[in-house]
Fold each of these.
Amino acid sequence: MSGRIVSGVLAPHPPHLVYAENPPQNEPRSEGGWEELRWGYERLRRNLARKEFDVIVVHSPHWKTVVGHHFLGVPEFSGLSVDPVFPNLFRYRYDLQVDVELAEAMHDAARDAGLVAKMMRNPDFRVDYGTLTACHLAHPAWDKPIVAVSSNSDYHYFSDDYGQEQMLALGRATRHAIEATGRRALLLASNSLSHRHFTVEPAVPEDMSHEHVYSHNGYLWDMRVLQMMREGRTRDLLEAMPDFIDQSVSEAREGCLTWMLGAMDFPDYPAEVHAYGSVIGTGNAVVEWDPERACGEVPA
Amino acid sequence: MSGGVVRGLIVPGKPHPLLAADRCAPWAALRASFDRLRDELAQVEADVLLLYSTQWLSVIGHQVQADPGPEWVHVDPEWHEFGSIPYRLRMDADFATAYRDAATARGLHARTVAYRGFPVDTGTVVALQLLDPERRLPACVVSCNMYADRGETLVLGKAAADALRAQGKRAVAVAVTSLSNRYHVDVVAPEDDRISSLKDDEWNRKLLELLGEGRLEDCSQLAREFSAQANGDQKMKALWWLAAAMGQHNRYTGRVLDYQPVYGTGAAIVDLVPSAGAAGALEYDEEDTDYYVGDREVLAGGAATTTAPVPAACAVAAPGVVRASGAPEPVGAYPHARRVGDLLFLSGVGPRQAGSDAIPGGPVRGPDGEARDYDVRAQTEAVIANVEAVLEAAGSSLAKVIDVTVFLIDMDRDFETFNAVYREHFETVQASRTTIAIDALPTPIAVEFKVVAAAG
């Protein structure tokens, strides 16, 4: 049987959500906070529980590379992840498996597509917190292997359009590899929307009276792109992406969302927006494209 | 000896000289230059290695590493095929705390981090492995805030100098940064490595020409243009930090130990030794900043980082706050005075001149921390004039002073002269007075008054 993508999810990775959820893997404990987003991830998990999938493929902005796209290529990793930006919130023990066969297939497909690609074979490598956070929030059981893909940022030297082209090519290569290996894959594109942070933190990090989107402009852009997603207008979204990135400092610049849209061949059916909320000023949404519900209608 | 930066270094933080020096001549040359510098540093009398690494990015203000012994096996996210770097570092946790406090006192948001397993960045690990593998000196590392502008980074550098002075520590300050930071984006064999563009190479060489002449402050002021032209590493914030920590001048003996490509980026090793005889000319074309008051509200049209420090409290209509245009700006988040009931409580008043911050009678130490001769008579006269300016702004006067606390940094040397000047102004006032000898004041002054007076 040919492999397929069972769902594609815009799955942002604020460590605050893991912190607020108080999973046993995370050392600091909180009083809660960011409930709307965490409830959104709960709705996503309920949907995913009805699906069968073999592997989670995640693209994270926090494994940054410049020379090519890198793929985890060691079967198992375990260790402690400490967020370098929010070490007070995220100190997380992980133990995960990697689908090396699929990773190698993606690597080869990327190379065949003319991209620079590299396997990461160093067993001492520390998996980035973006990958861990997105995977934990989408599927905390950790009973599926993952394939983690680095965020290549050589587009900084050229243009966002150039970066989008690269990520679309990587997405197509990802789809081909999934189909060729017969995997049923869940894709996680782990970026936020508008991405301007506050540079100060309240004394109690989960104090929600301090939380809002950094700027009205960021909010307007977030709503605009979410509406496109709800209406299944992913090609329009791609057209708007350079302006969105430029004007809202969007983390979509790191290519995760474009990669996933490329892998899913631009879904033209409505996405389900499970939640939207801000985390220390950045706009975050949990959004799911489910091919099995491609005939759904846009909510009123 | 008073504390300060005794030596400034600029070094690259890529792992190639440490892990892959044998792969091509440029990386081997960098390793050899690092080794030479390491040997030289072993002869330098210093108390701490003070690092600013462009690879340690922060969002929430600035972070200072305060774990006394960070230990891990590091793998670079990009260059993982070169191998792992096991490390056990030695950090000066006490100084880290002092640095955090000094940064906070200048309005920055800063915190120390001391978490087992904290991911120390490649630049820090590489620099410390190559410069001080024996951990002869404890280190202190501060992060590079991804949103910080020039003003915020200058303040961070000045806070480093504040903390060194306060602790009386001598530091080798290390800016861990590339110059041009444009990688090759395709796979390039090490033996084919070169600077990724001729333009980047030309800009690197221009910057190094200035640094070789000891013109650090000129380079700091050139950083924006350099970054725009040559894709400077993190906008060359490391130069802003280093220049501010070292006193914002060009009086150094500069030495470029090496300049090589590292996968297309410009990697230079530069040594700067404070020297009165070196190039002194400055071309100041950018504003200076002493105090940080938060993000710029660009969309609102306001600029919060200012040359004239505006304490955050300005935005709050606190009752009884007194601000005097004729007095020097405070160096922290406090007003000139506060009225409560019928009493005026003045913040500590020194001799700095309003507007220019010049110190009548001269500063007690130079920009490098060296002691200087000064005129305590002129300073005391200036203090009293400033006290008068604040009192008059509050509708009071010298005649209404009730109590004075005087701080002198050298009682033996200065008391007699100070006392004579004081008598000329206060003999008829008959305020109660206490005179105290202290080690230092926040700015290079010899005398400060703390005054309580009757309100107008």
Note: The longest helix of chain B spans residues 150-167.
Amino acid sequence: MCGIAGYYDKSSDSTGLIGCTVLDMLRALGCRGPDSAGVALYHAPADGDFVLQIKLGEAGHSQNPTENVIAKVSALSKPKDVSTTGGYLRLMIDGALDPGRVAAAVESTGSEVEVVSMGRRLEIVKQVGSPDRLEETFRISEFKGSHGIGHTRMSTESKVDLSHSQPFWAHGCPDVAIVHNGHITNYHKLRRQYEQHGTRFYTENDSEIIGVYVAQGLSRGLSLEEVLHAALADWDGSFSCLVSTADAMGFVKDSFAHKPLLFGETDGFAVVATEEVALRAVFGSELKVREAGAREVKVWRN
Amino acid sequence: MSESSSTPRVLQKSGIFSSSVIEDIQTKAESGIYRIRGYGTLRERRWATFDDLTFLPCSLTRIPLEGYREKCSTKTVLGSRFAEKPIELDIPVMITGMSWGALSYNAKVALAKGASEIGSSNTTGDGGMMAAERENSKTLIYEVLPSRYGINVHHMRMSDGIELTIGQGAKPGTGGLLLETKVSDEISKQRELPVGVDQRSPARHPDMLGPDDMIIKIEELREATGWQVPIFVKLGASRVYDDVKLAAKAGADVVVVDGMEGGTGASPAIFQDHTGIPTLAAVCEARAALEDMGLYGKVQLIIAGGIRDGVDAAKAMALGADAIYIGTAALIALNCNRPLYVDDYHKLGTEPHFCHHCHTGQCPVGVTTQDPELMKRLPIDEAAERVTNLLRAMTLEIQMLARSCGKSDVHNLEPEDMAALTPEASAICKVPLAGTRRVWGS
Amino acid sequence: MAELTCEGRTIREINAEIRRLLKDGEAVTVSSPGARHNLGVALLESGDVLFDGSVGYYCAGLIDGVKVRIKGSAGWGLAESMLSGEVIVEGNAGNSAGAAIRGGALVVQGDSGARTGVSMKNGLIIVTGSCGYMSGFMGQGGKMIICGDAAEAFGDSMYETICFVGGEIADLGNDAIVAESTDEDKQFLDASLTRYLPASVRANLPDGGDFKKVVSGRKLWNFKKSEWKTWEQAL
């Protein structure tokens, strides 16, 4: 049970301080999720290269895992812009490579190593602690881009650690991220179906199934709208959920309207959040907002 | 061989389709609906219970306290985490919320008086607060339930604590029932319902869906009561570990966990028998949750669900409870299942000691009825005295056990004061299996 | 008329100040509410309070007697468990508006969310716009007037709440039926809309005679196995 937020710049400008916007909304939602915080932000495409954010291990990074990953990845192509911050290894690599191969190469270096995000525009950073702590570690407020989603977490049934935090990358699907407030009650049933077909899960967190579901739907050629509509039939339980892709952002709300979600838009942008308090904190009192209805699906795309 | 020889007739009963199962199926074939009854689970308890633990009194390694002479304190404080005015009780055993509706007026007043006499507390119940309850309760806790029947901010402000009820042990995940005959004129007026309906309470709160909403709701309850009194969150024992963590995170002063063996005035039988985890298991999960959060001792824990005597209470306290709620035991003290008016038990199709027919409203001893004639069978003052006596006896039992373990305060009972008699109890309670000096499964 | 700002203050401080001002006989304007939660909870003094902006969850919850106006929108549980008083929100209301109210009047001049009026025991709710999923759910008494459309499962499992809908009803909930409006109903509707809404708003709403009346079919009040079809959905 959590706070989620998303911002989408409708102009094709990718220079807005969207990190700041999403972060400020998460700060306002803080009481809903004291356990962890995370953001999925989209910058302007960088020469078509993939950006990877890699979790090296719960205890932070040390020399060996970093070197191992770089070595493995170098066998495919030389990584660029390598840096480590707050337990993450960030690097860029040739965007013509098969993303599955790259992720597999990285994760083969250790059981605790996980690609937290991969995309030509997407970067996810998340960690245990508050939005303020996230900002201290990663300087989110300096991130410039076009859209982003974020999450503050109150853990219900699974662990409080980096991997179990959100946003979740739709693993294997570059540039797709999800955040979820609620609880998918047929998670285990869905998970077993996916595992029988070889999907790997990284956590025990039910929200992860959403990323898997969206990845599968999009890779079968469905549009984001179609995936979110199908979700209404396939997911059971409570959900207000935001999904972002390289060029779109959308939400879906469950049939019983169990979890709150409000949104507002102007000609210039669209914004979504669990509570109006987040929208007012950033956008003031003029913006007209409304609560999404039961079974409502909405997607913004440029 | 002829039939009239002395070969005895051997009757072989199916282990699957027992008499009660046959009766159950045939009743459902007539009615077309699930069974509803009062009381609590009627299952034979083959799971780990408090009976599978035994105390290890002092012998050579420790020194026991003298019974009756060397003081053993029973003072109990609840709500020290955030409340300006924590609840202070003289004993650690309290009366749980039971509705006026499920119970008769006389029963409710007797419970209030009986508890007050010995420095214990009373709790309202589904339907709200009765004036007589507040008048006769030294300490009164106000239950805020999913139904919100009779919800009244003024009554909340007159209370000594607010209990935000998410569920109860007998029927976690669903709402309560009060059947036709018990929705009398008075009850229907208090609950703002038509007379004579089969009232079904909601399963969840109307304006709060999830622990994230609950954080805000707890703040609202504090605002409404001037941040003075403790806020309890009451849970039916389901995913106890996760739920207790969430209740603590959401800001509860006290967490109440009501186990599978808890009672009810009327609920679907399948819920009483097949939902929720046993009270012993629940107290162990609850304590582990608070310890893992570093809040054990800061957030108080009240355990409920089939507590029968001071022994059960003492064992629950040794495992981590700060206080105990009793429900069914208190009703039995009032006269539930007592062999009086035995013909009336027969009219219900039962006998004393076998009666669980609270849902019918025909309680032969006037405890769980709205019939004024039946209620006359429960004169208040005598009934109150019986409640006081039970609470006193239970407290003495707890003290005796505590003294024998060398404790001058009942709250100093620890898991290490006990041994387990079965491997399951050892594994669940993390207490050594008697004879092995090891915790099973560790 | 007294003013106070929410900026830099806790909810506890804001509400304490509102109570103090009301006791002094002042009408109160509260600025910069910023959609924060628990504003105006348990106001037991009579008087007028204006929130100049949006409010969050449980605004005016547990009140008895005060009049509250909200210039923006409201979150979940607006006026929940109100005993008496009047709450008017000019914008939209979130889910569970008027939950468990036992008297008083709640007026939403925009749209209201899912489960509007859930478990209401008495009192009056008016929504000039549309209401969300399962509004009227488990309504025990009182009256609800929806001038616009009602979403799915309207009036599910009610006892004695009487609902009126001026627009379209997406579908009726369990045991909800459309009944004939009486002359008294029409007069009640006209009188209520005139009393609680500005004339300019009221003029654009349906006449008392154009509302559909929705009440409980009473088939779920007591279980009877012959009405199994009705119960099938409910159980």
Note: Chain A has two domains: 2-45+125-301, 47-120.
Amino acid sequence: MNEISQQLVNGLALGSVYALIAIGYTMVYGVLRFINFAHGDVFMLGSFAGFYLAPQIAKWFPLPSWGGWVAVMAATMIICAIIGIVIELLAYRPLRNRPKLTVLITAIGVSLLIQYTCQHQAFFGASQKAFPPLLPSGNFSLGGLSFNTTQFVVLGVTLVLLAALTFIVKKTRIGMAMRAVSHNSAAASLMGISNSFIISFTFGLGSALAGAGGILYGMTYTGIEPLMGVSVGLKAFVAAVLGGIGNLPGAALGGLLLGIVETYAGGMSGVSTYRDGIAFAILILILIFKPTGLLGSKQIEKV
Amino acid sequence: MKPESLLLATFASLFGILSLTGCKSGDGSTIKVGEFASLTGKEKTFGMSSHEGTELAFEEINKAGGVLGKQIELLTEDNQSKAGEPANIVNKLISRDGVVAILGEVASSRSLEAAPIAQEAKIPMISPASTNPKVTEVGDYIFRVCFIDPFQGTVMANFAINTLKVKKVAILTDAKSDYSKGLAKYFKEQFTKNSGVITSELDYNGSDKDFKAQLTTIKGAAPDAVFIPGYYTDVALIAIQAQEIGLSIPLFGGDGWESENLLQVAGKAIEGHYFSTHCSPEDTSLKMTSFVAAYKAKYNKTPDAMAALGYDSAYVLAEAIKRAGTTEGPKLRDAIAATKDFEGVTGKFSLNEKRDAVKSAAILQIKDGKFKFLETIAP
């Protein structure tokens, strides 16, 4: 019983990171009907931003500490937001009126470009680097289960960011504009909404979340390398689809579920190498029986 | 001219020019030796170390006049620690660059990929540190200057029983690595033969980041130690996460652990754990001390076992060329196979009829953030 509960804790922690990145995927899809495959790589860039920023920030806020951690998170989220906006401007905006397939392929191209450029010795180099400790971390036991403080931080930050994002989307004017563009971009522009601004804003917001995910991932798993975004990004995408693409709480739910399933599969003898396969098999099953995802709603096309 | 045909003409001429530059430069004034290694990527330190050892060796040999009156030209290519790359690189080294022998690799999976190509082309290949027995089984042109995993597995099984004095061990294997799977198998055979009990066998995919699931299950079965025959990048994370879930039993593994990177990434989490390797830079033999001094002078750091093996593989090749009196494939192969009582940095060894080296293993422990020599185990 103990082991099952322990795996649940592990799964929730892993799932929180997936959730954060899945939210970014789902938001961009919701507004633009477009899967930004480079999102997983923005997550990786966030981790590296934290890695390089930490020694600089340590000059003002000694690390590890809460103040330093907040500073690194804030700085990384801003940097990733800028990266996301730049990618949108350079790679996706010129293709705004082209078929969706063209932009999709471009997204894959951007993703590969980032991965391989970063592997080059002149950039980050392909070998693993040790992510510096940002928060005083401790292991403690509670009721027979082992926890690490970082796991709580990750879960907590994910919930806070999810709440903040839902607030922005539901209760602010810019959120309303985002929802309008998502519904019908032509009508939105007729209402005086600048589509370009909203799209850039959405990318920036999603990328900031990916950056936060990158920092939390670095804190949990310490080893960072340029290809880390590939598998995590793919799983986060699966999580977003699992929860219903375009649905924010769905993405979070999908992420947590995926993390839990993967962790249980990983802990079983003989099955552990198939843990990734199992996660994707579940995706296929859910899509067969509920194609719109767990919390997704049917898209009605008026003819 | 129509734009499409102009484009076609440009491509055709470019292709023609490029294929001409690929022709073998047969000037014959140097002996070309090819090397393929993981200079970047997941197992970067292995490739860098073995390459530095090899480079140092050839530098010394060339300074002393070369071999058969010619200088040795080392052509090194990076396979980025990726599967699929060694095949491309070795093909290129053999067919385009016309090398007389191939040195490489440290990782068994990648040596296994390249070996059939060298065997087919009848170009001798010497692996500095691949320990999976299948590597030399590919053919009689494939050699190695290190011990093989059946021996290493036995060494670690005996270490567990005699030194660690543990009866129950869990094994955590890297399913993507031939080295890891082989070493785990041999360890299990020997350990269970001596009435040891394997409490659980789990695996992971190399480059995975999250091992908590496997470690939690391992913890649940309450073993006395965990055998992790994997590579240092993953072992570092495993050690950290083992500490996080409160698993405080000894961890031990094979020569895949040997890297400065392990100490850097894992820090305190790897303190006090053990692994087997080919030699220790603390060895007091004359060969080792002069090698360490020369290596430190050139690269400004202490060499590890991979560097020593790279150095030895280069010297074995050079000696064989001298003995054969030629760089012709079959004669060179025979000369390498006849290597007997070679005085290497990693010990005195001969190549047996399976073309493997018969050598001792060294057990190291991580103490105070450094590798400390614990004991030597002879075959």
Note: The longest strand of chain B covers residues 30-37.
